[in-house]
Amino acid sequence: MFKKIVSSPISYGIGCLGLLLFIVIGCLAMLALRQPRCEACPSPPGSVPEARPLVDTDGILYSVAHQTLFAFEDTSGKLLWQYSKSWLNPTQPVVSEGVLYMSLTLREESYSFPYSTWVYAFHGSSGQVLWHTRIFSSSTPLFSPSP
Amino acid sequence: MVAGIVYAQASDGATLFALRASDGKVLWNQNAEGSSQDFVKLMLATPGIAYLNAYHSPAGQILARRISDGAVLWQYSPPSCFPGDGPVLSGRLYISDICNGEWGETVALQAETGKLLWRFSKGGSITATRAVVYVNETDHNGPGVDSVFAVDAATGQMLWKRVISRGVVAGETHIWAATDEVVYATMNGIWYALATRDGKPLWQFPRPNSTELGPDEGTLLHMQSWVVSANVAYLFNGLFQAFNASTGTLLWTFSALSVDPIALSAGIIYLSGLAPAQDEQAVFSPLQKQEITAIEAKSGKVLWHTIQTQQSQVVAQHGIYLSVATGKPYHYTYRILALQSATGKQMWTAQQ
Question: Does domain B258-352 have CATH number 2.40.290.10?
Answer without folding.
Answer: no
